[in-house]
User: What shape does this take?
Amino acid sequence: MKLKIKDMAINERKRQQFWDMQSFVKKKIKGAHTKVNDDGKIYVADRNGRNTIGTKYPSLALAPDVYTAWKNAYVVEHWNRQEARSIRGIKTDIRNNTVQGGEGLSKAIYEYFEDAPEIYDEENMDE
Assistant: This one.
């Protein structure tokens, strides 16, 4: 059976994606390598042999092949970075912003997120 030019291009592209994902994960997780568990499932482990995905995303922790294992590790690493960046960004926004409503009503936005904040009823301020 001959491979068509189109099939060869797909294989080359997939191989390049694999190397890109693998190099990215290896930069973020020192000593990352592929391991096989007792059931024959494949995962990406850190230098201590622990699964890099952990228990946060159990459906992605084990993969049927090496490509999928590295892809899952790449995706989870991306999600973790986005989540960390979002949390830091939200905290910064809360610290730096204020809600404006006049001299007496100016209130830092973080006060709205406290456990027991004083609530302003802007429509019925006289009551």
